[in-house]
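Thread: quick sanity check before group meeting

JM: Hey all, I'm pulling together slides for Thursday and realized we never actually wrote out the predicted structure for the chain we discussed last week. Dropping the sequence here so it's in one place. If anyone has concerns about the input, flag it before I start.
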Amino acid sequence: MLVKSDEELAQVRYAAHAAEEACKVIAEITTPGIGEEVVFAEATREMLRQGIGVRYPTIVMNSGPHTLSWGPPRWTTSGEAPRILQRGDLLQMELMPMCGNQEIQVQMTVALDPLDDTSRKCESVALKSYDAGLKALKPGITFADLLAAMEEPHRAAGCWGYTPLVHSLGPHFLAGRTQVNIDQANLNVTFVGPNAARQRKAVIEPGMVFAFEPNACIGNHRVNIGGTVVVTATGCQELNHIPSTVTHKQ
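JM (edit): ok, ran it. Output follows.
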């Protein structure tokens, strides 16, 4: 299941295209004074315009100058009003469109500048982790090798990762939750059960698809970026570009 056929890869590419189009919309409309619900609605509309499916919770979203919250928007279940975006905020969203039941994921982040120095450092580490993953990913290495490359920037900068830095798509069998600087995580988050994942040593093959989602945390600051990456015969190919960096709005 991890190695996709040509037909499945075509579906993966189309789902990634739908996510990229939605990220364009998010980048355009995210401004101070707009409500989270407006961005959520327009991003969902753009994905559905592509003739694809979306799975619950459609979009994971949070916003604020710094927050570790990650899940469906609070206002979808709590009855509170959606948050209004402000200068200094990071709007962070995970989109999960599907084509032919092939799901992809992207991590779209918009910064309403100015950001504080801690968030800037988290952004820099997330970018370095993403680039390290692209350089490392190729057939013949193990998934553990890929994770080790992506977590090295966290080790060097003293950051920790809240969610996996990388995982396989269709199924989510290979999950790269880093244990680097885990003591910091335990100080800032209460985990239900052990904060660990099985160490997967599967050998990477052409046709595998991965969600790159490097997130870097310092205290309660978190920056998350990333998109869909396909393993080729000689290396890898990025299918998403907008969410692979933070979009800054002056």
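AS: nice. The chain has five helices and eleven strands. The domain at 6-249 is CATH 3.90.230.10 (Creatine Amidinohydrolase).
JM: adding both to the slides.
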